[in-house]
Amino acid sequence: MAGMSPQITNLVIILGMMQVSKKIPFEDPQVLMGVRALYVVSNLIIAAIYLYIQSKINTKKDATQNLISVIPDMTTLKYVEPPPMGSAEEEKLVTTTVHSYDLQQLRGLWKSQLMGVGMMAVMHLYFKYTNPLLIQSIIPLKGAFEGNLVKIHLYGLPAIGDLKRPWKAAGGMMGMGGGEPKSDRKSIEQAERSRNGGVKDE
């Protein structure tokens, strides 16, 4: 699946696990506890990854706070942020630092993960659905290892090409997300002239 997009591999995994889950005796208490344990362990691994990334981001800032002018993590990052999909809002200019941008992206990951856990808890504990436990033990963990922050701060990949900030907002399963941030000089100058932003992200 090396050449497939994450959305396609997710779809393949979901379809495959749906077939596998039909053969799992969830009515067996021991099997059910095992699947629950797998889901918990998966989320603990994700939490550990995010905490490690947060420490890496903050460590870089603390270690280089007196060298702001030459450290990439403290340099200014300016881009034009597209409006949310379906929104009537206009584009806005955002001025931040690499450090602040990464922390913002990490907060988004935490929020998404907590919402997923909350939804899964309602589905499993209230509506008594068990099959999604298996799928949600794999897809979010896979997504965590495919994230841009993990590639940069855990794998140590350079922030160039597809990893160059700012990143396009993650879309849904079929890749239908919002617009792509613009960081070219022309777009930034147009945004500055139109006074649609200039928001300082601390």
Describe the fold and architecture.
This protein has 202 residues and is mostly helical. The protein is built from 7 helices and 3 strands; from the N terminus they run H-H-E-E-H-H-H-H-H-E. It has helices at 6-21, 29-63, 98-126, 131-135, 139-146, 148-153, 185-194, and strands spanning 76-81, 92-97, 199-200. The chain starts with 5 loop residues before the first helix and ends with a strand. The model is unreliable at 172-176 (pLDDT under 50).
Summarize this structure as a short list of keywords or feature phrases.
mainly alpha, 7 helices, 54% helix, 202 residues, 3-stranded mixed beta sheet
Radius of gyration: 20 Å
In quaternary terms, these chains amount to single chain
Q: Which structural class should the secondary elements be placed in?
A: mainly alpha
The biggest sheet, with number of strands, parallel, antiparallel or mixed sense and barrel status, is: 3 strands, mixed
What number is the mean pLDDT? Answer: 85
Strand content: 5-15%
According to DSSP, the number of beta strands is 3
Question: What shape does the CA trace take?
Answer: elongated
* Elements, N to C (H/E): HHEEHHHHHE
Count of runs of 4 or more consecutive helical residues? 7
Regions with pLDDT < 50 over 5+ consecutive residues? 172-176
Order of strands across the main sheet: 1-2-3
The percent of residues in helical segments reads 40-55%
Distance between the termini: 40 Å
